[in-house]
Amino acid sequence: MDNITPATLDQQLLKQVFVHNLNRIYFGKCYLNKNLAHIMQLASFTALQQAIKEFWDDVKKQIARMEEVYKLIDETPSDKNCNPIKSIIKDEFCLDEEQSIPILSDMDVIMYIQLLEHINITSCRMLMMVAKQLKYANAQQLLTECFDESIDNDQLFILISKEYLSENQ
Protein backbone atom coordinates (compact mmCIF):
# COMPACT_ATOMS: atom_id res chain seq x y z
CA MET A 1 0.00 0.00 0.00
CA ASP A 2 1.34 3.42 -0.96
CA ASN A 3 2.04 6.01 1.72
CA ILE A 4 0.68 8.77 -0.47
CA THR A 5 -1.48 11.38 1.18
CA PRO A 6 -4.95 11.21 -0.35
CA ALA A 7 -6.06 14.09 -2.50
CA THR A 8 -8.42 16.61 -0.96
CA LEU A 9 -11.99 15.53 -1.55
CA ASP A 10 -14.23 17.78 -3.58
CA GLN A 11 -17.63 18.81 -2.21
CA GLN A 12 -19.46 15.99 -3.99
CA LEU A 13 -17.16 13.30 -2.62
CA LEU A 14 -17.24 14.86 0.85
CA LYS A 15 -21.02 14.72 0.79
CA GLN A 16 -20.87 11.08 -0.30
CA VAL A 17 -18.57 10.30 2.65
CA PHE A 18 -20.89 12.24 4.97
CA VAL A 19 -24.06 10.44 3.84
CA HIS A 20 -22.38 7.03 3.85
CA ASN A 21 -21.30 7.39 7.46
CA LEU A 22 -24.52 9.08 8.55
CA ASN A 23 -26.41 6.09 7.13
CA ARG A 24 -24.29 3.71 9.16
CA ILE A 25 -24.97 5.29 12.52
CA TYR A 26 -28.59 6.12 11.67
CA PHE A 27 -29.54 2.55 10.81
CA GLY A 28 -27.50 1.25 13.73
CA LYS A 29 -29.49 3.49 16.07
CA CYS A 30 -32.77 2.47 14.40
CA TYR A 31 -31.97 -1.21 14.91
CA LEU A 32 -30.93 -0.54 18.49
CA ASN A 33 -34.16 1.38 19.11
CA LYS A 34 -36.15 -1.72 18.10
CA ASN A 35 -34.18 -3.95 20.47
CA LEU A 36 -33.61 -1.93 23.63
CA ALA A 37 -36.77 -3.20 25.34
CA HIS A 38 -35.29 -6.69 25.25
CA ILE A 39 -31.92 -5.46 26.51
CA MET A 40 -33.61 -3.59 29.36
CA GLN A 41 -35.32 -6.83 30.42
CA LEU A 42 -31.93 -8.51 30.71
CA ALA A 43 -30.74 -6.04 33.37
CA SER A 44 -31.18 -7.19 36.97
CA PHE A 45 -30.02 -3.99 38.66
CA THR A 46 -32.69 -1.25 38.94
CA ALA A 47 -30.24 1.59 38.33
CA LEU A 48 -29.06 -0.17 35.17
CA GLN A 49 -32.64 -0.54 33.94
CA GLN A 50 -33.20 3.18 34.55
CA ALA A 51 -29.95 4.05 32.76
CA ILE A 52 -30.99 1.95 29.77
CA LYS A 53 -34.34 3.76 29.71
CA GLU A 54 -32.53 7.12 29.72
CA PHE A 55 -30.19 5.85 27.01
CA TRP A 56 -33.18 4.68 24.96
CA ASP A 57 -34.78 8.12 25.23
CA ASP A 58 -31.53 9.61 23.90
CA VAL A 59 -31.41 7.07 21.06
CA LYS A 60 -34.87 8.24 19.97
CA LYS A 61 -33.77 11.89 20.10
CA GLN A 62 -30.64 11.08 18.10
CA ILE A 63 -32.67 9.29 15.43
CA ALA A 64 -34.95 12.33 15.16
CA ARG A 65 -31.92 14.64 14.87
CA MET A 66 -30.36 12.50 12.16
CA GLU A 67 -33.66 12.52 10.26
CA GLU A 68 -33.51 16.31 10.45
CA VAL A 69 -29.94 16.20 9.08
CA TYR A 70 -31.16 14.15 6.12
CA LYS A 71 -33.80 16.80 5.42
CA LEU A 72 -31.27 19.62 5.73
CA ILE A 73 -28.97 18.05 3.15
CA ASP A 74 -31.81 16.81 0.93
CA GLU A 75 -30.93 13.12 1.24
CA THR A 76 -32.88 9.96 1.98
CA PRO A 77 -31.53 7.34 4.41
CA SER A 78 -30.27 4.16 2.76
CA ASP A 79 -29.13 1.05 4.60
CA LYS A 80 -27.34 -0.34 1.54
CA ASN A 81 -23.87 -0.37 3.17
CA CYS A 82 -24.74 -0.57 6.85
CA ASN A 83 -23.98 -4.23 7.59
CA PRO A 84 -20.82 -3.68 9.69
CA ILE A 85 -22.60 -1.50 12.25
CA LYS A 86 -25.77 -3.61 12.22
CA SER A 87 -23.65 -6.73 12.72
CA ILE A 88 -22.05 -5.26 15.84
CA ILE A 89 -25.45 -4.27 17.21
CA LYS A 90 -27.07 -7.61 16.35
CA ASP A 91 -24.21 -9.54 17.98
CA GLU A 92 -25.27 -8.20 21.39
CA PHE A 93 -22.24 -9.74 23.12
CA CYS A 94 -24.30 -12.96 23.36
CA LEU A 95 -26.44 -11.19 25.96
CA ASP A 96 -29.09 -13.92 25.87
CA GLU A 97 -26.67 -16.53 27.20
CA GLU A 98 -27.59 -17.30 30.80
CA GLN A 99 -24.89 -16.38 33.32
CA SER A 100 -24.28 -17.97 36.70
CA ILE A 101 -24.59 -14.63 38.54
CA PRO A 102 -26.53 -11.48 37.54
CA ILE A 103 -23.49 -9.19 37.68
CA LEU A 104 -22.01 -10.98 34.67
CA SER A 105 -25.08 -10.30 32.55
CA ASP A 106 -25.35 -6.72 33.77
CA MET A 107 -21.70 -6.00 33.05
CA ASP A 108 -22.09 -7.51 29.57
CA VAL A 109 -25.03 -5.16 28.96
CA ILE A 110 -22.99 -2.18 30.21
CA MET A 111 -19.99 -3.06 28.03
CA TYR A 112 -22.23 -3.62 25.02
CA ILE A 113 -23.93 -0.24 25.39
CA GLN A 114 -20.60 1.53 25.98
CA LEU A 115 -19.12 -0.12 22.88
CA LEU A 116 -22.05 1.20 20.84
CA GLU A 117 -21.69 4.66 22.34
CA HIS A 118 -17.98 4.71 21.52
CA ILE A 119 -18.81 3.90 17.90
CA ASN A 120 -21.36 6.73 17.94
CA ILE A 121 -18.88 9.14 19.54
CA THR A 122 -16.25 8.36 16.91
CA SER A 123 -18.76 8.55 14.04
CA CYS A 124 -20.26 11.83 15.22
CA ARG A 125 -16.82 13.35 15.68
CA MET A 126 -15.92 12.51 12.08
CA LEU A 127 -19.32 13.62 10.75
CA MET A 128 -19.01 16.95 12.58
CA MET A 129 -15.64 17.55 10.86
CA VAL A 130 -17.07 16.75 7.44
CA ALA A 131 -20.20 18.84 8.12
CA LYS A 132 -17.95 21.78 8.94
CA GLN A 133 -16.08 21.37 5.64
CA LEU A 134 -19.37 21.15 3.77
CA LYS A 135 -20.64 24.24 5.62
CA TYR A 136 -23.60 22.29 7.04
CA ALA A 137 -23.78 24.40 10.20
CA ASN A 138 -27.23 23.19 11.26
CA ALA A 139 -26.29 19.55 10.65
CA GLN A 140 -23.05 20.07 12.56
CA GLN A 141 -25.04 21.41 15.53
CA LEU A 142 -27.45 18.47 15.48
CA LEU A 143 -24.54 16.03 15.35
CA THR A 144 -22.82 17.88 18.19
CA GLU A 145 -25.93 17.32 20.30
CA CYS A 146 -25.85 13.60 19.44
CA PHE A 147 -22.14 13.51 20.29
CA ASP A 148 -22.67 15.25 23.64
CA GLU A 149 -25.46 12.83 24.58
CA SER A 150 -23.26 9.87 23.72
CA ILE A 151 -20.46 11.24 25.93
CA ASP A 152 -22.98 11.73 28.75
CA ASN A 153 -24.36 8.20 28.28
CA ASP A 154 -20.88 6.71 28.37
CA GLN A 155 -20.27 8.50 31.68
CA LEU A 156 -23.64 7.35 33.00
CA PHE A 157 -22.77 3.71 32.38
CA ILE A 158 -19.37 4.18 34.02
CA LEU A 159 -21.17 5.50 37.12
CA ILE A 160 -23.62 2.59 37.02
CA SER A 161 -20.70 0.16 36.88
CA LYS A 162 -19.06 1.82 39.88
CA GLU A 163 -22.35 1.83 41.80
CA TYR A 164 -22.99 -1.83 41.00
CA LEU A 165 -19.50 -2.91 41.98
CA SER A 166 -19.41 -0.91 45.21
CA GLU A 167 -22.79 -2.29 46.36
CA ASN A 168 -21.63 -5.86 45.78
CA GLN A 169 -18.36 -5.69 47.71
Give descriptors for this structure.
single chain, 169 residues, mainly alpha, Ferritin, 5 helices, 0% strand
From the alpha-carbon coordinates, what is the Rg to the nearest angstrom?
18 Å
Q: Tell me the structural class.
A: mainly alpha
SSE pattern: HHHHH
Uncertain runs: none
Domain tally: 1
Note the total helix count: 5
CA-based shape: elongated
Distance between the termini: 51 Å
Return the CATH architecture: Up-down Bundle
CATH topology: Ferritin
CATH homologous superfamily assignment: Ferritin, core subunit, four-helix bundle
Number of strands: 0
Helix content: over 70%
Structural description of this entry:
The structure is a single chain. The chain has 169 residues and is mainly α. The chain has a single domain (11-77, 89-167), classed as Up-down Bundle (Ferritin), CATH 1.20.1260.10. It has helices spanning 11-42, 46-72, 83-91, 102-133, 137-167. Helix 1 runs antiparallel to helix 2 (46-72), helix 2 packs antiparallel against helix 5 and helix 4 (102-133) packs antiparallel against helix 5. The model has no long low-confidence stretch (mean pLDDT 86).
Question: What is this entry, summarized?
Answer:
With 169 residues, this protein is mainly α. It is built from five helices and no strands.
Explain the layout of strands and helices.
Layout: H1 11-42, H2 46-72, H3 83-91, H4 102-133, H5 137-167
Helix pairs in contact: 1-2, 1-3, 1-4, 2-5, 4-5
